[in-house]
Structures are given as structure tokens and as C-alpha cells.
Amino acid sequence: MRIMGLDFGSKTVGVAVSDPLLLTAQGVEIIRRQEENKLRRTLARIEELIVEYDVQELVLGLPRHMNGTEGVRVELTQEFRDKLERRTGLPVVLWDERLTTVAADKTMMEAGIRREHRKDYVDMLAAVFILQGYLDKRNNENASSVQCGTVTIDLKESE
């Protein structure tokens, strides 16, 4: 089982998937479309990736404003979530994506990727940050025990 992270933009969707242990996120691709409202091919490609990576859950970045308010992009993202749920039958978790694009851009700057090439990767890297944030929170909530195959190790101190 894996989890897929999505960064939904006006003309692109950045895609990332978790490793099978649900510890790390890796960028997969950027799905590009010619027009904002044309989502049929985008949804079809996401379905293909869900099958290819055995995805059981989706995490979709929610683009709130820095002050926490919701604008037009949030409404469009919620509509996209509804389409994803209907089409895939999988649960879609909305995840606050504030500053993920900034973090992605900073990471690429630090890696020495030239400014003109950053736009080619920023959406996929933002999807990685969205998914990794979700995985980290999910794993921290489950930190009282660790499951290794069929063995569960209790990390709580014995009394």
C-alpha cells in the first residue's frame, strides 16, 4: 500500500507517492493540461498511477491564504477532490499546503538548479512536501508503537 500526494494547480498537477512503508515521499511526475477546466485526461493519468503504485489513499494540497482564509483556489481544489473521490473510490485527505511551493523553490535553489529550470520541477517537489508533511504527522501520531512486518513493538515505557 502507498499514499499519493497531489499539488493541484491551474494547469498542472504535481504527483508524489510514498514508499511502501509510508515513511518517505518521492516525486513521480507533473501532469500538464492545456486548459484549466479540462480534467478528464488528468484524472485518467492519476488513475493509471494509482494502479501502478498500488495507492490506497490520496492527499491533496489545500491552498489556503497565509492568514488562513480560503479563496477561489480552495473552492476549485475541493471540487477536484470531489471528482477524485467519485472517480477513484479512494479517500482524499485535504492537507494545508501553505509555503510548500516556497520550500520547493528554496530546495531547488540550494541544489543549484537554475531559475529557468525550476518551473519544470516545482509542482512535483511541492507534492513531495505535501505528502511528506502528511506522512510525518501520520507517523508521529502512531509513534507509541512500531509495526515491523507482523511484529508490533510497543515503545511506551513499561510500568
Describe the structure.
It is a single chain. The protein has one domain: YqgF/RNase H-like domain (Nucleotidyltransferase, domain 5), CATH 3.30.420. The longest helix is centred in the last third of the chain and has 20 residues, at 122-141. The strands form two sheets. It has a five-stranded mixed beta sheet with strand order 3-2-1-4-5, with helices on both faces. A two-stranded antiparallel ribbon has the order 6-7. It has helices spanning 40-53, 72-88, 100-110, 115-118, 122-141; strands at residues 2-8, 12-18, 25-32, 55-62, 92-96, 145-148, 151-154. By secondary structure, the protein is of the alpha/beta class. The N and C termini lie far apart (35 Å). Helix 3 packs across helix 5. It contains five helices and seven strands, in the order E-E-E-H-E-H-E-H-H-H-E-E.
Provide a quick synopsis of the model.
The protein is α/β, with parallel strands linked by helices.
Number of strands: 7
Q: List the helices and strands in order.
A: EEEHEHEHHHEE
User: Which descriptor suits the 3D outline?
Assistant: globular
Helix amount, in percent? Answer: 40-55%
Largest beta-sheet details? 5 strands, mixed
The neighbouring-strand order within the major sheet is 3-2-1-4-5
- Secondary-structure arrangement, i.e. CATH architecture: 2-Layer Sandwich
The CATH superfamily label reads: YqgF/RNase H-like domain
Query: How many structural domains can be distinguished in the coordinates?
Result: 1
Total helical segments: 5
Q: Strand fraction band?
A: 25-35%
Round the Cα radius of gyration to an integer and report it: 17 Å
